[in-house]
Amino acid sequence: MRRSIVWFKTDLRLHDNETLIKAIAQSDEIIPVYCFDDSQFETTEFGFKKTGNFRAQFLLESIIDLDKNLRSIGSGLLIVKGKPEVEIPKIVQEYKVSKVFAKREVSYEEKQKEARVQEELFKLKCELKTFSTSTLYHAEDLPFSIKDIPDVFTNFRKKTEKDSFIRVSFEEPKELKSPDIESLKLPTLEELGLDFQPIDSRAVLPFKGGETEAIARLNHYFFETKCISEYKETRNGLVGADYSSKFSAWLALGCISPRFIHDELKKYEKQFGANDSTYWLVFELLWRDYFRFMMKKYNAKFFQQAGIQSKGIPVNKHNTSQLQEWIDGETGVDFVDANMIELKLTGFMSNRGRQNVASYLCNDLKLDWRYGAAYFEHQLIDYDVCSNWGNWAYLAGVGNDPRGNRYFNIEKQASDYDKDKKYRNLWLKS
């Protein structure tokens, strides 16, 4: 009996999941596993819990949905809590597993964890097989090696679009053979050291986790409303559900894959026509790929104050009260405050808002940018390690921005993007 584990991490879906498809092809039985990793709920050196209330709630919803979808094809999800390098080998021994299939990691802590798991599995004569499942373009199909990827996004994009291709998505499995898996037993938010926090009713969207919700959102944004055809014009919006796709939350946990989005976009373009807006979504997915490949190239550097540029930037002595005012939306700069209050009460903020509040923290307050990145990690429903730290380093002038020191004139930004103060009035009213 060839028995394998599929270790789900940030790939909580059945569609376009190479890890799952390869495991099925090489096994007689599959045990799908999700590990609540203790380290994801610890407090970081910056004073924030890695995973906050909104992120955890979205994660729990996504896992419930994955379990439901797995059960519909004959399986289920086995839940463990602790350190993956301890918990995964326990299941390997209990079920006499010969292979563990998992998503391949690229960022520093995740890679270290992967290596520790591999080390423990090796002792049990069990193989760890990893697959790249997070990007639109597969790393192996890029027109350059990882170490030679251009540090400027435009150069990366042009050459990739010209000389590479997007692979076809994997079909969703119709059946999964598993031993009996007990009904889902999730830790409560309390057991994770967190509280339930309802999303404020002013939120752009009542985000709910899971593959089912992700696909429903895609169908809404593409086929039901055709909002995608105006995406380029509306993407800098601040109020309402449909100024942008909002796919980022589901992409972050892998409830939907970039290739699946691309496949559906091609169907949409065939039916309703392609334009700058439909292309712009692919452009944004390319940014996401880019930060993932950059993380692979530079590894731990993205988490250091000097970033990948290794240059000093003027930073004030750490000021706890200034940081707290920024978090609470009490800086006195109305556009910054409105955005920070939205983030605090909903776990989400527009792209326009993120750039402004990051510029304010780095350039006006001159605080260490990593505190901002760590707070976003804690608070954002759509936190993605590569995009978050890559974008913050970019804004702080220590990342991939060829211009360096990108300063936002916040007053001008507010009058350009919130002319009638609709957004500020929404969030600044008590």
TrEMBL record:
Give the family from UniProt. Belongs to the DNA photolyase class-1 family.
What InterPro entries has UniProt attached to this entry? Answer: Cry_DASH, Crypto/Photolyase_FAD-like_sf, Crypto/Photolyase_N_sf, Cryptochr/Photolyase_FAD-bd, Cryptochrome/DNA_photolyase_1, DNA_photolyase_N, Rossmann-like_a/b/a_fold
Task: Say which species the protein is native to.
Answer: Flavobacterium cheonanense
One Pfam family hit: FAD_binding_7
Record's protein name: Cryptochrome DASH
> Entry cofactor note text?
Binds 1 5,10-methenyltetrahydrofolate (MTHF) per subunit. Binds 1 FAD per subunit.
Record flagged with keyword Flavoprotein: yes
The cofactors required by this protein are: (6R)-5,10-methylene-5,6,7,8-tetrahydrofolate; FAD
What residue stretches are annotated with the Photolyase/cryptochrome alpha/beta domain? 2-136
Top-rank lineage group of the source organism: Bacteria
